[in-house]
Amino acid sequence: MSWFLVASGGAIGAVLRYSFSVWMMPLTQGQFPWATWWVNILGCGLAGIFLAMSEKFPVLQGDGRFFVVVGILGGFTTFSSFGLETFNMLRHDDLTLALTYVGSSLLCGFSALSILYYLSRQVLF
Q1: DSSP class of residue 58?
Q2: Which among 5, 18, 50, 91 is least surrounded, fewest beta carbons within 10 Å?
Q3: Terminal C-alpha separation, the chain
Q4: Helices (H), strands (E): how many in the chain?
Q5: Rounded distance, CA 52 to CA 49, Å?
């Protein structure tokens, strides 16, 4: 059953990611990969919310986690695109942009997850 949950969630996440990237395309001109950046930050924040919710509602653990976190959020966020975009920046000798991308992705992603986790706990309890 977990394979089906991950696969179906992953399909949903992948379609959401593609749709988000298409929507962002006209808004994200330039060298910085804003669509991937936003997808990953949003995915981290949603993971924080889901973690808080699963602590309050144990039914979301197990199969719910496979479907939402591994499936939907796994298909929505993209570490491979992040790695490729960073590599291409370095390949084109844009160290400053690459470091900005990596640093801001890690800092903002972790911050979004942490802040939304704690805010969600406050709202749920």
Answers
A1: G
A2: 91
A3: 31
A4: 6, 0
A5: 5
Question: What's the pLDDT score for residue 102?
Answer: 98
The two tokens of residue 94 are 């844009």
pLDDT of residue 30: 81
Contact 77, 17 (CB under 8 A): yes
Task: Give me the residue label for tokens 């704690």.
Answer: 118
Contact 6, 67 (CB under 8 A): yes
| Assigned token pair, 15 | 């379609």
Q: Which helix (H) or strand (E) holds 84?
A: helix 79-91
Does residue 27 contact residue 34 with C-beta atoms inside 8 Å? yes
How far, rounded to the nearest angstrom, does the alpha carbon of residue 25 sit from its chain's CA centroid? 18
| Other beta carbons within 10 Å of 3 | 8
pLDDT value of position 46: 97
CA distance 104 to 40: 11
pTM attached to this predicted model: 0.90
Q: What is the mean pLDDT of each run of 10 residues along the chain (125 residues)?
A: 94 97 87 94 96 91 92 95 96 97 98 97 83
Cα gap 105→26, rounded to integer Å: 21
Q: Could you tell me how many residues make up the chain? A: 125
